């Protein structure tokens, strides 16, 4: 799925309309508290301005109603943080396609950067409105998609805008190119053994992922709270553990279909309350006593999973093994992360909680790739086609 990147075009004297993901957390004083997503977009932005191009950045932030705006969702703090990181002035437009955006776009000089206000302040973004998209695309010479976190969506900025660009160049930014390389290409042509580790709370969130990966992986390891739904499907006792009773039949089908490929926990670390200082007990899987709930995979499971992961040549991980934010129920997640770090396989960490876990546990630098988009990485693991990516120019 090789697509042209921003490096493949000459932006000198041209206007590049770039979709980025500046959906960053803010404190009560509208200060950016985590600038990782802005930092990740810097290589693509610098590639344009350092070669004499002008860049107009568009992004969403939060989930406003599309009725004109709410100050707490403004992209102004992100623009200020970007200026700080770039070490140069960054213009900010108080609208997306209105008078201020028009004036700031017209005034933008070569090497300049303009951030438009939150795309979702306009209802046309979520509805994929063609007129809104045409207004955004007007005057731009090149479209660049560097927002992997929304690549699985059909928002106007992701699909209708590149469509409105007609025959003009449509390329990926470096961040999207890296995500495609790892998530798409690694799954299409994995080095084997290929092992997937799936955790998190709900089987329902990962049904299609499990089904797809059972068809292409050598082993699929299950952890997190969803393991208790599988345990219930095998007739086990789950105490007060989080389960999806309406998904038990589906779990039975997945167990039958998975055979030896599907690996389930053999023991469980339980607590009698959701806290670090609760009473704790380790029991065999399916033997959780009343009054207790499963909060992590047990030590035997952690050892088996670690051995499987260490031997793998390609690893995809989405979802923690237990309540990783609350020691000692972070032990299972830590064991898997350590095994990935100790092995020599290509390791791809899906976004969301698994990305937060490797960051928190200190393993982020020891894995091959940490995805920036939880929903998008899941959708790619499901084997979904992305219209936003398909629209970009092939190499």
TrEMBL record:
<dbReference type="InterPro" id="IPR015911">
    <property type="entry name" value="Phosphoglycerate_kinase_CS"/>
</dbReference>
<dbReference type="InterPro" id="IPR036043">
    <property type="entry name" value="Phosphoglycerate_kinase_sf"/>
</dbReference>
<dbReference type="GO" id="GO:0005524">
    <property type="term" value="F:ATP binding"/>
</dbReference>
<feature type="binding site">
    <location>
        <position position="325"/>
    </location>
    <ligand>
        <name>ATP</name>
    </ligand>
</feature>
<feature type="binding site">
    <location>
        <begin position="60"/>
        <end position="63"/>
    </location>
    <ligand>
        <name>substrate</name>
    </ligand>
</feature>
<feature type="binding site">
    <location>
        <position position="120"/>
    </location>
    <ligand>
        <name>substrate</name>
    </ligand>
</feature>
<feature type="binding site">
    <location>
        <position position="294"/>
    </location>
    <ligand>
        <name>ATP</name>
    </ligand>
</feature>
<keyword id="KW-0324">Glycolysis</keyword>
<feature type="binding site">
    <location>
        <position position="37"/>
    </location>
    <ligand>
        <name>substrate</name>
    </ligand>
</feature>
<keyword id="KW-0808">Transferase</keyword>
<keyword id="KW-0963">Cytoplasm</keyword>
<feature type="binding site">
    <location>
        <position position="206"/>
    </location>
    <ligand>
        <name>ATP</name>
    </ligand>
</feature>
<dbReference type="GO" id="GO:0043531">
    <property type="term" value="F:ADP binding"/>
</dbReference>
<keyword id="KW-0547">Nucleotide-binding</keyword>
<dbReference type="GO" id="GO:0006096">
    <property type="term" value="P:glycolytic process"/>
</dbReference>
<keyword id="KW-0418">Kinase</keyword>
<protein>
    <recommendedName>
        <fullName>Phosphoglycerate kinase</fullName>
        <ecNumber>2.7.2.3</ecNumber>
    </recommendedName>
</protein>
<dbReference type="InterPro" id="IPR001576">
    <property type="entry name" value="Phosphoglycerate_kinase"/>
</dbReference>
<feature type="binding site">
    <location>
        <position position="153"/>
    </location>
    <ligand>
        <name>(2R)-3-phosphoglycerate</name>
    </ligand>
</feature>
<keyword id="KW-0067">ATP-binding</keyword>
<feature type="binding site">
    <location>
        <begin position="351"/>
        <end position="354"/>
    </location>
    <ligand>
        <name>ATP</name>
    </ligand>
</feature>
<comment type="pathway">
    <text>Carbohydrate degradation; glycolysis; pyruvate from D-glyceraldehyde 3-phosphate: step 2/5.</text>
</comment>
<feature type="binding site">
    <location>
        <position position="120"/>
    </location>
    <ligand>
        <name>(2R)-3-phosphoglycerate</name>
    </ligand>
</feature>
<dbReference type="GO" id="GO:0006094">
    <property type="term" value="P:gluconeogenesis"/>
</dbReference>
<feature type="binding site">
    <location>
        <begin position="21"/>
        <end position="23"/>
    </location>
    <ligand>
        <name>substrate</name>
    </ligand>
</feature>
<feature type="binding site">
    <location>
        <position position="37"/>
    </location>
    <ligand>
        <name>(2R)-3-phosphoglycerate</name>
    </ligand>
</feature>
<dbReference type="InterPro" id="IPR015824">
    <property type="entry name" value="Phosphoglycerate_kinase_N"/>
</dbReference>
<feature type="binding site">
    <location>
        <position position="153"/>
    </location>
    <ligand>
        <name>substrate</name>
    </ligand>
</feature>
<comment type="similarity">
    <text>Belongs to the phosphoglycerate kinase family.</text>
</comment>
<comment type="subunit">
    <text>Monomer.</text>
</comment>
<dbReference type="GO" id="GO:0005829">
    <property type="term" value="C:cytosol"/>
</dbReference>
<dbReference type="Pfam" id="PF00162">
    <property type="entry name" value="PGK"/>
</dbReference>
<dbReference type="GO" id="GO:0004618">
    <property type="term" value="F:phosphoglycerate kinase activity"/>
</dbReference>
């Amino acid at each position: 799925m090789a697509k042209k990147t921003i490096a493949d075009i000459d932006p000198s004297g041209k206007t590049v309309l770039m979709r980025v993901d500046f959906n960053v957390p803010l404190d009560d004083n509208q200060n950016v508290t985590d600038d990782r997503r802005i930092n990740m977009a810097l290589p693509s932005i610098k590639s344009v301005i350092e070669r004499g191009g002008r860049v107009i950045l568009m992004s969403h932030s939060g989930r406003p109603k599309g009725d004109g705006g709410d100050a707490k969702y403004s992209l102004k703090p992100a623009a200020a943080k970007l200026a700080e990181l770039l070490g140069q002035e960054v213009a900010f437009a108080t609208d997306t396609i209105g008078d201020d955006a028009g004036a700031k776009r017209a005034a933008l000089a070569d090497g300049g950067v303009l951030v438009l206000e939150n795309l979702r302040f306009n209802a046309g973004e979520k509805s994929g409105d063609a007129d809104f998209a045409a207004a955004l695309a007007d005057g731009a010479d090149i479209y660049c998609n560097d927002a992997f976190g929304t690549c699985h969506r059909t928002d106007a900025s992701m699909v209708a805008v590149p469509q409105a660009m007609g025959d003009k160049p449509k390329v990926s930014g470096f961040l999207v190119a890296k995500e495609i390389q790892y998530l798409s290409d690694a799954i299409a042509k994995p080095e084997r053994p290929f092992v997937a580790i799936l955790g998190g709370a709900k089987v329902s969130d990962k049904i299609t992922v499990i089904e797809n990966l059972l068809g292409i992986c050598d082993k699929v390891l299950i952890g997190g709270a969803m393991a208790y739904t599988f345990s219930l499907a095998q007739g086990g006792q789950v105490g007060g553990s989080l389960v999806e009773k309406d998904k038990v039949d589906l779990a039975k089908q997945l167990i039958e279909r998975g055979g030896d490929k599907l690996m389930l926990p053999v023991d469980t670390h339980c607590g009698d309350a959701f806290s670090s200082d609760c009473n704790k007990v380790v029991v065999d899987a399916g033997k959780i006593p009343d009054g207790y709930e499963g909060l992590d995979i047990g030590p035997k499971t952690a050892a088996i999973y670690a051995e499987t992961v260490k031997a793998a040549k390609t690893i995809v991980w989405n979802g923690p093994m237990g309540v990783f934010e609350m020691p000692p129920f972070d032990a299972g997640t830590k064991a898997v992360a350590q095994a990935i770090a100790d092995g020599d396989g290509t390791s791809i960490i899906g976004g969301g909680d698994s990305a937060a876990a490797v960051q928190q546990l200190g393993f982020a630098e020891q894995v091959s790739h940490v995805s920036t988009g939880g929903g998008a990485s899941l959708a790619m693991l499901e084997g979904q086609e992305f219209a936003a990516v398909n629209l970009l120019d092939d190499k």
